[in-house]
Amino acid sequence: MGNPMPQNLIKAGCDVTVWNRTKSKCQPLISLGVYANFDYGADLSLFMLASKKCVFKLSLPNSEVDNGNLC
Fold first, then answer.
1. Distance CA 24, CA 62 (A)
2. End-to-end C-alpha distance for the chain, whole angstroms
3. What is the value of pTM for the model shown?
């Protein structure tokens, strides 16, 4: 699910920025011309996360849900 979404956005003419903890997973998209850097100044951010736990860790980083482990 992670690669088809930005690929479709690129085909539609959108500027796309991607980020992944494992940088090599971004490489197929980088070769299509996307930026590889997380940009907090974006107009819209879409997240493809592995689990509900990851959603909570991203949206509530200082909550009791965050136990310091990576998703």
1. 29
2. 17
3. 0.59
CA angle in degrees (0–180, nearest 5) for 62-54-47: 110
pLDDT digits (tens, 9 = 90+) for 2-54: 788 888 988 899 888 887 778 888 888 888 888 877 666 677 777 777 788 87
- Residue at 47 is within a domain: yes
Structural domains in the chain (count): 1
Please compute, for residue 34, the number of CA atoms within 13 A of its CA located in the half-sphere on the CB side.
26
Residue span of the structural domain in which 48 resides: 4-59
